[in-house]
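Lecture notes, unit on protein representations.

Consider one protein chain, 726 amino acids long.
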Amino acid sequence: MVVLGPVLVGAYFVGSAVTSADRSRSADRLAAAATAVRTAVDALCQQLRAAAEAVALADDRAVAARKMVDRGLAAAVRVTDIEGRVLHATTPLPAEPWRDCAGRTSAGAPPGALAVRVDLRDATGVPRGTVTAAQPVDPAFVARLAVLTGAAVTLLGGPDTASQLRHTTESAGVREAVLGAVGGVDGEQVVGTVDGRYVRRVGPSDGQPLSLVLSVPSDRPPSLYVALVAVVLLAVLLAVVVAGRLARATSRPLAELAGAVDRVARGDLTVRVPVRSRDEIGRLAGAFNRMTRETGTYVAALTSSRDQLRGHLEVLGDTLASTHDLQRILRVILHSAIAATGARAGAVLLVDSGGLLVAQATEGLEVPAGGPGPNRVPLGDLVGAVTVSGEARRGRVEPSTASPGEPPCRTYIAVPFAAPRDGGATRADGASPSVGGPPDGAAPATFGVLALYDRLAGEEFDDDDLVTLRTFAGHAAVAVDNVRVHEETQRLSLTDPLTGLWNYRYLRQSLRREVERATRFGRMLSVLALDLDRFKHVNDTHGHAAGDRVLVEFARRIRGEIREVDLAFRLGGEEFVVLLPETDVVGAAIVAERLGAAVRDTPIAVDGLGVPVLVPVTVSIGVAVHPDHGGTGQEVLNAADEALYVAKASGRDTCRVARAAKAPALPVPVCSDEGTPPADARHETSEQAGAAGGNGSETDVAAGSGAVTPSGATSGPHPPRQSRGR
């Protein structure tokens, strides 16, 4: 059955392909023949028209008609007057009826000749009669068409093909089959006959009034299907013979091998299979015997290793579950890996921001005197190459090829740490945060290496050691990832989920820390309090989704205008705070003006009922400086908020510096758009936002949220990269 199926399918496709190709070639031949017929009839009609016109223009029409006949331009020419009386005619005339080349063959009697009629006119253009040139449609005419087209041609005299057969070049043996096939054909469709011919009907049509049938013989070999059947039968016979011999040669050894496999499956590793030949079955039996012997040895060794590894994994699991101390976890992993593989020494190394492998835990390593030591290894060296390629390596180290950055050893084995595929926290920019890893945007998937050196037994590390080490490397990767998740959770608790800026909780910590630093070193600290003008109008007009978009874009522009050491915060709603360490009042005013211009000069695009809308946004800013406007962080923040109130009352879209002591808040010269404060100008108080991630037009001093960042917003911990001067 395996042989018969493909053979039958192949024979079917061969027969179908040959038949399809033969039909396609025959259809092309008939199409070419039909074109040749139309061309020949059209050329004959043009010739008859030229002869009739020449006679009509001649003075002596009788002489001209005879010349046309003598030259072979027409078989007969007849001149009649306006009433149809024959004035002159050449002899002999073809049999009636004469069919006009411009018409179609009627359903009556078959045509006796093709004719072209030209009107006779006098000098004034009045019709005086007609000149008709004719060419007989006889067997010779049909034979010439057959020679011209390369196909058999049959002339029909009417729609009934059996009774209206006029002339044909078909042989008597196929004539009936051709006429029978073409009897039910509509138009010029190609059909086949039972004796292997292809038939097509041509005409009648405009310019070709004859009803013709063209046929060509098939090119398909007559014995094709007989040959295909013979091939199928031969293949079946050979398949039966070969199957019988294979069954006798393989059944007994395979039965013995199957019984031995069953015994091995039940746990009997002492079973052996007799080797009866040197063919594939014999080699399979020998390989099975070797496999059972080696399997027994491996099982004994694995049983011992399993018990030892189980103990190490229990210790490792307890450590992973009970602490977030990365150093302790890595030390336990390294100790367990060394004990499980019998290595002399080892190290756990992680990639730092400088692109070097830094040893986080070591055991049994000796630091070379005066050398860089094993604590820092370049990524291109022996173990460092594992981090670059992401593939585990093991082998022997020749003294001549030893790297100065690697510890001295004879053999080594190293397995990379790869970040879990779905685990770990995710930063706002889409990258996984790294613990001692490369800088942002360049961290590879492999961020560390677990390396062991020199087995105590003096042998090289083998594949079993590689598998064992991968297990410990996987635990180490999980441990590092857990630390990442823990740190990312802490970061999320200090950032605003909508804009990605720091939240109020981190503002309190940062303000206290920066004030203490400024006090200790005698430096200044500037605080900017920012509030978007008429933000409630944006929410009411365009919706809260548009308000969210405005807040996110405003936060992005803040990042673009401050230094990397500066800190930006969102207090809630549309209120923001920026801390500028080591910045005096003039520098703070310059930053405030730059922030106001960045918001004012470029409207923010939002979606308004499906159509992008540009929303003009402005910001009012209050400036306060430590220690001029307050001795504590809260006092400076309150002073900046009071200055913000003054900026709001002064007409918005401006900035004001907090007043010192009892003096009123003064405008800073670099601030623009001060305007005249309206009589009813008031500080735009914010209604309660309700949630830290919302954009409610009222201020909500939230303590932070660990909510998931909305789509399109960044939850990054304030990542501006450019450093701008004051």
